[in-house]
Design brief:
Blueprint lengths: L11 H6 L11 H6 L40 H20 L11 H5 L4 H8 L4 H19 L2 H22 L8 H17 L11 H19 L7 H21 L8 H5 L9 H9 L2 H13 L3 H28 L3 H10 L6 H28 L12 H11 L9 H7 L1 H11 L3 H4 L2 H7 L13 H9 L12 H12 L15 H7 L17
Helix pairs in contact: 3-6, 6-7, 6-8, 7-8, 8-9, 8-10, 9-10, 12-14, 12-16, 13-14, 13-16, 14-16, 16-17, 16-19, 17-19, 19-21
Length: about 525
């Protein structure tokens, strides 16, 4: 668990010798090198009798009276101990073997796992948060250990958490608490990991249910205003939450409300931004590019369409400039080189964090440059090689295996769907990519089950089927997959209204934001 001091995971021999343990099982490497017998990792339990025996001349021994031990331990105490153990096992598997981190470590600079520390501080303060965390924990451990009763109980806790969430939203104080904001996030994580479409859903797909939780969390954040996220838990949860929130708007191709300048600046008045924060500042602008491309394609007036096209090209080159700056100044280039040298057979927790941030960067490149090329059209001169989305699809396919390694834990699995899904959408949009080796390599991860028993294949299939009926049974044909990918990317005009309003009035107001003077009639199409 990141940032939790005082919890040594070393073997008993290394702990006794006060040596650093490499945590290999069944015997650690340090003991093998030293020629010592490894005492294993099981902790001995010492029971101490603290009852003072009676003394004195008046003390008499009486016969023992049999008592039925029905309430030796109260139910609440027993349940509390069980819950603590379940949560401890979950956190141990969330990012296994992660070292205690300094602010400049790769984990703290690049991973999106820092919300976990905040949850540990808050989960006792709110019933909805506690129930949702238990649902996620039981679902994870049950699949890892193949315990069906834990999986079933996890689903029950999930349903109870939904009920408690609805109660909290009607409470005058609870609805704006940090605990409730992260509750919606955890419920979304549960859907992403375990909300399989083969469960009875009453017409709501797994992807739609996950998206609903994301939109709910976004609504809570926006009602709290940027000033509520300047310090403390509020800031930590906001900074770690933008990534998964913007994904839902990429999927919808609608401008993201948190791309407004106030939401990029006010929450960081007192806290410096990490490289992750700065890259997500770029990512939050991407849904706006997708929406503008759809608007351009839907324009019937040729003059207006040309103005939209030029403005979109200019915006894409602006994003390109920010991406290049981040890559040159803030990206984990050294760590990536070390990972490439060692290979991905035994990645560390730091490697997983590095892989998560660089695949996010490559995903942004796919979305930006595919939009740029569609806006420029096929008649333009050759563009720079860095603007070829196929390059980033290949890079993603060559590194995502890291996310399925045991050391990646649950955090790694959460990091996998976005880069895999976006790379597949692009490859499916043209014939050569549809039949490419890169595409087949990515598809192989649909059926991949991680060491902890989690699979993301059903969630990825749900996103493929989303918008089709019936949602629980449809099988996409190859031509259907190609057509859906082309439509989503904007290769062919999309059906339906382009400017569908967002679900909340505050989101709609911010989504309509655009800087003044966005139309520039004379633009160099090939360079920023």
């Amino acid at each position: 668990m990141v940032g939790v001091p005082g919890r040594s995971k070393g073997c008993n021999t290394c702990r006794k010798r006060k040596k650093g343990c490499d945590l290999q099982r069944p015997s650690c490497g340090q003991c093998i090198k030293a020629g010592l017998e490894c005492a294993g990792y099981e902790r001995k339990r010492i029971f101490v009798n603290v009852t003072k025996p009676p003394t004195g001349k008046d003390f008499k021994v009486t016969a023992l009276v049999p008592v039925t031990p029905a309430l030796v331990q109260t139910r609440s105490l027993s349940q509390s101990a069980f819950e603590e153990r379940i949560l401890e096992l979950f956190w141990d598997g969330y990012m296994p073997d992660a070292p205690i981190c300094s602010p400049r470590s790769p984990i703290m600079r690049y991973s999106n796992a820092d919300w976990a520390t905040t949850v540990r501080d808050l989960y006792r303060t709110d019933a909805a948060l506690r129930l949702s965390l238990l649902a996620l924990s039981l679902g994870t451990i049950g699949r890892r250990d193949k315990q069906q009763w834990m999986i079933d109980d996890g689903l029950k806790f999930y349903c109870n958490a939904l009920t408690e969430m609805n109660v909290a939203l009607r409470h005058p104080k609870r609805w704006k608490s940090d605990a409730l904001m992260v509750t919606s996030r955890i419920l979304g994580f549960y859907e992403l990991l375990y909300g399989a479409d083969d469960r009875e859903r009453h017409g709501i797909s797994q992807a739609e249910s996950w998206e609903g939780h994301s939109l709910g969390e976004l609504a809570l954040i926006m009602q709290r205003t940027p000033e509520a996220h300047i310090d403390g838990h509020g800031h930590d949860l906001y900074a770690s939450g933008r990534l998964h929130l913007v994904i839902s708007h990429v999927k919808r191709r609608r401008r993201f409300p948190l791309s407004h300048p106030a939401w990029k600046t006010v929450p960081w008045q007192n806290v410096p931004k990490t490289p992750k924060d700065i890259l997500i500042d770029v990512f939050v602008d991407i849904p706006g590019l997708l929406e503008d491309l759809d608007h351009m394609n839907s324009c019937k007036d040729l003059e207006e369409k040309e103005l939209w096209r030029l403005a979109l090209i200019k915006e894409c080159w602006r994003v390109d400039e920010e991406l290049n700056w981040w890559l040159d100044n803030l990206s984990p280039q050294k760590e990536l080189e070390e990972l490439a040298t060692r290979g991905s057979n035994s990645p560390t927790a730091c490697d997983v964090a590095v892989a998560s941030i660089i695949t996010l960067y490559w995903t942004i490149c796919i979305l930006t440059y595919s939009t740029l090329r569609l806006a420029i059209g096929t008649k333009s001169p050759e563009l720079p090689e860095r603007t070829d989305p196929r390059l980033y699809c290949t890079k993603i396919a060559n590194i995502v295996d890291v996310f399925f390694h045991p050391s990646a834990g649950t955090f790694g699995i959460q990091s996998a769907p976005l880069p895999i899904g976006m790379a597949l959408v692009y490859l499916n949009s043209y014939e050569e990519g549809f039949n490419s080796e890169t595409k087949f390599k990515l598809v192989s991860f649909f059926g991949r089950t991680a060491n902890n028993g989690i699979s993301i294949g059903k969630f990825l299939m749900s996103t493929q089927r989303d918008g089709l009926k019936p949602k629980t049974s449809v099988e996409l044909s190859p031509e259907g997959i190609k057509a859906k990918a082309k439509s989503w990317l904007g290769v062919v005009p999309r059906e339906g209204p382009v400017c569908q309003p967002l679900r909340s009035a505050s989101s709609q107001a911010l989504a309509s934001h655009r800087d003044d003077g966005f139309v520039t009639p004379h633009i160099n199409l090939l360079a920023p």
